[in-house]
Amino acid sequence: MALSPTDPNSFSRPDLAIVTHTHLNVKVDFDRKIFDGSATLDIEKKGDTDLLILDVRGLVLLSIINVIDGSRLDYCVEKGVDYGSKLSVQLPETPIIDGDKIKYKIKIDYRTSQDSTAIQWLSPEQTAGGREPYLFSQCQAIHARSMLPCQDTPCVKSTFSAEIRAPAQLNVLMSAIKDEVIDSENSTRIHKFHQPVPIPSYLIAIAVGALVSKQIGPRTKVWTERELLDKSAYEFAETETMLKTAEEICGPYVWGIYDLLILPPSFPFGGMENPCLTFVTPTLLAGDRSLANVVAHEITHSWTGNLVTNENFEHFWLNEGFTVFVERKISGRMYGEKVRHFNALMGLQSLTDTIKTLGANNPLTDLVPNLVGIDPDDAFSTVPYEKGHTLLFYLEELLGGPEVFEPYLKSYLNTFKYKSLNTTQWKDFLYKYFSDKTEILNTVNWNAWFKSPGEPPVIPKYDTSLADEYLTLAKKWLAHENSSAFNTNDIDNWTPNQKEAFLAELVLNNEALSIDQIKLMDKLYDFSSQHNSEIRFQWLRLGLKARWEPSVSKALDFATSQGRLKYVRPLFRDVYAWEVMRQRAIYAFNANKDKMMYVTREMVAKDLHLINEKKGIRAN
To answer: What's the pLDDT score for residue 361?
Structure first.
């Protein structure tokens, strides 16, 4: 497949030369909060010029040499944009000839900045153990360029290896297979890794800390600080079942191991699908496995995203829409098809909330948005997840159901494995596979799905049986019925997801409950004492919507005790929208922003209007 040089968020030019392997040799310096070392790049020439174009952001470049003869190479860093710069390297005059391929090997000595947007440095006080420092990376969408010089676009996939020197008392993990650990001088150890499957740069990941593990399946260890180990092992005990179910749907798992790393609270996402080592937020530790579906989502990324990848982040739905679609198939097989449909209805709730926040005419609610000049972080929302899932569910129904669509899914994944593609290529393959159903496919309004903002043009006919009960109770509360109409046992038999969906329905409704109703609901259902993060989040939002003052301090405490964007941004926005509480939101942010990872800090600052928003578009 031809590689595209047109990623709007990357300077790299894979049409000229492509990086096929990266070897990192770096020292982790906790005192200076930097990586110090080198990246050795294997390069294959593609075009007519002798330039290699890379992406960098805030890196200190010390030298670039030809590994073959040690000669220095000329290079230039051009002034870039907020999210990076273009590094042009003059390739050596004497290439390595390998059959009909022209190759090079260069070494870039560099240091990261203390302000690297990919790396979160934590003091011992910010960890569960409180004794050792900790760091972790988050490179998606385009932050790998602040951790190493690379072609920071998902249309380029390459293998990597690494030698990481770190303090001897700490463990090092990467999105790769660990080969060995070597004791070294000055109280350090060298940890060696290799990733033999080609991956895009955003999947390169590292964590360093006082990390221990426990085996929870034949292919899976759970890693975390010792204080959270047993709780984490219990929470994610069903991982192997999810992995096997995903293989039934998608085909063989090619990555060898599937480990989980439960990170400190400042991690900004629910999970991150780093190969061999999924990163997970501790907000999933509900104690009842009710939030473990996030792991099913990250497992699915092993195929949809990691194996088959969006060409650039305008086509992000090819990663996330497919992943949500398969994740819910896993839930359906494990817990029943009604659960799959219920989860889809919850997804629609989330999508409605996003569209309400962004605006129904906002172009960032297109399934395939134009991201020229827009940082993908500013465009991040539930739209590619839920609108993408809705399209795939609709197509499955339209084309004959799971027994027809699942063989297509396997064929699609097998055809594009190890590759990156765009929406046009996806659609072309869909038509090719279903060549006998072209007339049916022609009834789909593709332009409305891909390029129209707002709600999906078609909502599938979901089974609502698991939703009817909470919807009926929500209507009773919204009708302001007498308090005698409600009882403590109204929700006794509900799952945590039903409780969450009930609260979300009330949050989304245009009408707010009264403070007296909120107090009564808490007395009857005791939502204030819930430990489930999703229920807690929706309950806090409902209280803020009712202008119940006790919710303000609790919401800001929750928003600053963890960094998950799903919770942090809406809670800060809700408090900010309450005009008399606006300064409390700003004060809480300023008091805690230095503990936040870059993406969380930047997004919340925009939500609070503390920095200008790019192109006047409100991010989600």
So the answer is: 97
